[in-house]
Amino acid sequence: MVPTSSFAHKKQQLYLVLSGIFIVNALLAEIIGVKIFSVDALLGLPGNLTAGVLIWPVVFVTTDIINEYFGRKGVLRVSFLTVGLILYAFLVILATTKLPPAQFWLDINKVDAEGRPFNIEFAYQSIFRQGLGIITGSIVAFLIGQVLDATVFQALRRITGSRLIWLRATGSTLVSQLVDSFVVLFVAFYLFGNWSFEQVLSVANTNYWYKFASAILLTPVLYLAHYLIDRYLGQDDTVELQQEAAANVSV
C-alpha cells in the first residue's frame, strides 16, 4: 500500500481537481444560462434549450465521481462552496451594473457592425440583470438537485455495492435533474421573469430530455474517469477511499 502521507496527498489533490472542474462548470452554466437557443435552428430538432444546460452534464458527471470516492459529504461540501462562490460572482456582477458608464465607451459602441443604433450599456444591463433571476432559481434548484443526487446515489450504492457504476450514476442524475430542470426555470423565468407556465414546461421538458440523453451518452466517460482515478490512487487505496465514501466519512 502507498504510504499514508502519499495517499492523503493524492486524495487531497483528487478532490481539489474534481472540485475545480465542478465549480467552474457550475459557475459558467449560471452565467451563460440567460441565453435560450433554438434546437430546431441548430439541429433541426423541436424545442428550445438554455445555453447553460449544454455544460451541465459535466457537473453531474463530476458529482457522481465525487460521490463515488468522497461520499455524500464530499458532494454537499463542494455544492455549498459552489453556491457561495456563485453568489459572490453575481454580487460583483450586480455591483458593476450600478457603475456609471464612461461616455467615450458609449460613443465608440453606439452602432453595431452593420451601422445600426446600439446601446452597449442597455445590452450589458439586460444580459447581467436577467441573470439575477436565474441565479435565484438556479441556487434553489441546484441545492435541491445536489441533495437528491447525492442521496439517491448512495441509496443505489447500498443496493449494488461496488458493481453497476452506471446504474447509480445515471439513476441519481435522472431523478435529481427531473426536479432541477423544472424548478430552475419556474423560479427564474416564471416567478422572476415574464414566461408563461406553458413556456416553462416546454423548455423544462426539452432540458430534461437533453440531460437524460447526456447521462446515458456520458457513461463511457464515467468509466474512463474511474479507470484513470483507480490507476492514480492504486488498487488498495481506491478500495479504502470507496469504503470511506460508502460510509459517508470521507474528506
From TrEMBL:
GO MF, one annotated term: transmembrane transporter activity
UniProt-listed Pfam families: Vut_1
Keyword Acyltransferase: no
PANTHER family: QUEUOSINE PRECURSOR TRANSPORTER-RELATED
Membrane topology qualifier: Multi-pass membrane protein
Source taxonomy: Bacteria, Pseudomonadati, Bacteroidota, Cytophagia, Cytophagales
Keywords of this entry: Cell membrane, Membrane, Transmembrane, Transmembrane helix, Transport
InterPro entries in alphabetical order: YhhQ
Family under the similarity heading: Belongs to the vitamin uptake transporter (VUT/ECF) (TC 2.A.88) family. Q precursor transporter subfamily.
Chain's role: Involved in the import of queuosine (Q) precursors, required for Q precursor salvage.
Main localization (coarse): membrane
Location in or out of the cell: Cell membrane
Assigned GO CC terms: plasma membrane
Record bears the keyword Isomerase: no
Membrane spanning stretches: 14-37, 49-66, 78-97, 132-153, 165-192, 212-229
Top-level taxon of origin: Bacteria
Name this protein carries in UniProt: Probable queuosine precursor transporter
